[in-house]
Design brief:
By secondary structure, the chain is of the alpha/beta class. It contains 7 helices and 18 strands.
C-alpha cells in the first residue's frame, strides 16, 4: 500500500553529509554555492538515531540552503569533532542545483576549482571539500521558474547509485508511494510531490554490482504527519525491508522534540521520516545561525588537540 495518501503527504526535507573541515566547508557553501546557514546546533553526545553516524562524543549539525526549510530542500552538515576525513564509497553521485547565470558566474569567479562539461554552456560542476559533487545547471528539465515560489526547491535532485533499478523502483514507488517520473535501463527518477527535490537513481555497471556506502554515506530526510510514522514502520516490516531505527523521539536542546523512523532501501540508502508538525517548529530559521557556526568554528581547538596526539582519525 502506497504511503502517500490525501494527495501530497510526504515532504522532501534535506540530505545529510558528514564533513571533516567545517571552516572550508562553510566557505564552499557560502562563497561557491551562494547558500546561507539556516540553523546551527551543538551536541555533547552521539545522536540516538545516528544522525551524525555511528559516533559518540561532541558533534554539530548545520543546516544550509537557499531558503527556509518549510519551503526548500536543504543540506544538513554533520561534523564530528574527532574525525577529519570519511572514506567515500560509490553510493553518492551528486546534487543538482537549479541555477541562474549569476550562480554559474559566482562559482566560476570564486577561485574554487570548477569544471565545465565539454560542449556545455549552462552547467558548472564543483566539488565540496569532502568530495561531494554539485552540478549547477540552467537546463530546462531542472528549471523551477520563479525560485521564490513556495514549494519550489532550488536543490533540484539528489543522485544516488542503485545495484538493481527494478528493486529500487519497487521500493520507492510501490512501498513509499513516490511518483516515478522517468525510467530507462540506466536511470530512474522519483519524486514525493510536484515541485519537490527529485531522487535520481543510476544503475551501477557490471553483472552483479554492489553499492558501497563506506563511511561517508549520507541520509535523505522526509516529513509526514506524525500519526503516519507507525504505519510507515509497519509497512516496511511487513515488506521485509530494513528498519534501522524504530520510532523514537529526538531532543534538540531548547527546541522542539521530533519523532523519527529511520529506514534503509534495498541498497542501504538511509531514509529518515520525521513528524512534520514538530519538525516545522524545530526547523525555523535561526537568525543567529551564521554567528553560532562562526563562534563554534573559532572556538574549535580539536585540530590542535588531536595534532598533539597523532592527528584526527580517518573514518
Amino acid at each position: 500500500v502506497a504511503l502517500t495518501h490525501a494527495g501530497n503527504m510526504i515532504r522532501a526535507l534535506h540530505f545529510v553529509f558528514k564533513v571533516g573541515d567545517r571552516f572550508r566547508t562553510a566557505e564552499f557553501y557560502r562563497k561557491v554555492l551562494g547558500m546561507r546557514f539556516l540553523r546551527h546546533e551543538e551536541f555533547t553526545e552521539g545522536c540516538a538515531a545516528a544522525c551524525n553516524g555511528p559516533y559518540q562524543g561532541r558533534w554539530s549539525k548545520s543546516m544550509v540552503g537557499y531558503g527556509p526549510e518549510d519551503e526548500h530542500f536543504v543540506l544538513e552538515l554533520t561534523y564530528n569533532y574527532g574525525i577529519g576525513r570519511y572514506a567515500a564509497g560509490n553510493d553518492f553521485a551528486g546534487i543538482v542545483v537549479s541555477a541562474t547565470r549569476a550562480d554559474l558566474d559566482r562559482a566560476l569567479q570564486s577561485g574554487w576549482p570548477t569544471v565545465i562539461p565539454e560542449g556545455a554552456s549552462d552547467v558548472v560542476v564543483v566539488q565540496s571539500p569532502d568530495g561531494h559533487r554539485f552540478e549547477l545547471t540552467m537546463a530546462s528539465q531542472y528549471s523551477i521558474g520563479d525560485s521564490s515560489k513556495a514549494g519550489q526547491s532550488r536543490v533540484a535532485a539528489v543522485r544516488l547509485a542503485s545495484s538493481n533499478l527494478d528493486a529500487t523502483v519497487t521500493y520507492w514507488r510501490d512501498l513509499l508511494g513516490f511518483c516515478l517520473l522517468e525510467r530507462d535501463a540506466a536511470k530512474a527518477t522519483l519524486q514525493p510531490g510536484a515541485g519537490q527535490c527529485r531522487l535520481e537513481f543510476f544503475q551501477l555497471p557490471g553483472a552483479n554490482p554492489t553499492v558501497e556506502r563506506a563511511k561517508a554515506y549520507g541520509r535523505v530526510a522526509f516529513s509526514c504527519p506524525a500519526d503516519a510514522l507507525p504505519g510507515i514502520q509497519a509497512a516496511s516490516e511487513r515488506a521485509g525491508q530494513k528498519v534501522l531505527t524504530p520510532l523514537l523521539s529526538l531532543d534538540t536542546p531548547g527546541k522542539a522534540t521530533v519523532q523519527v523512523v529511520i529506514l534503509a532501501d534495498p541498497d542501504g540508502h538511509e531514509i529518515c521520516f520525521v513528524g512534520d508538525e514538530a519538525f516545522r517548529q524545530l526547523s525555523q530559521v535561526d537568525p543567529k545561525a551564521d554567528s553560532l557556526l562562526d563562534e563554534a568554528m573559532a572556538g574549535d581547538k580539536s585540530a590542535e588537540w588531536f595534532a598533539k596526539r597523532g592527528g584526527k582519525a580517518d573514518a
